[in-house]
Amino acid sequence: MPTIFSKIVSGELPAYVVAESNDYLAFLDINPLAQGHVLVIPKIEVDYIFDVEDDVYAGLWLFAKIVAKGLGKAVPCTRVGIAVIGIEVPHTHIHLIPLNSVQDINF
Ligand code: 5GP
């Protein structure tokens, strides 16, 4: 059974894609914690981030870094916060959250 994120990768479900490479995808979170909240995923479906193969893991973080730099310029913010939670969707992902202060997020 593919995850919601695999369905986004395949185009079965819509998403607002902000960046894409052969192996990774970045798209807006459907329920953002702040304006411009982005999720960065490997296209390959692996539930737990620490089970991801080393090369995919390294590539994911490098891709997230590139997306974060662009995001920081595109959205007014002091910095782009980064988080790994992975409770709701069993498909490895990194949250990028543009922030101006801690009040921006409401965990
Ligand atoms: P986590 O798994 O890290 O706890 O959170 C999963 C994140 O995925 C949440 O921030 C949630 O809003 C987001 N999300 C869940 N379903 C969808 C969806 O169908 N589309 C998009 N763009 N984001 C989703």
From TrEMBL:
Residue ranges occupied by any HIT domain in the UniProt entry: 4-107
Biological process terms in GO annotation: nucleotide metabolic process
Annotated motif Histidine triad motif, positions: 91-95
One GO MF term: catalytic activity
Active site: H93
Top-level taxon of the source organism: Bacteria
Protein name, UniProt field: HIT family protein
Residues of the full protein shown: 1 to 107 of 132
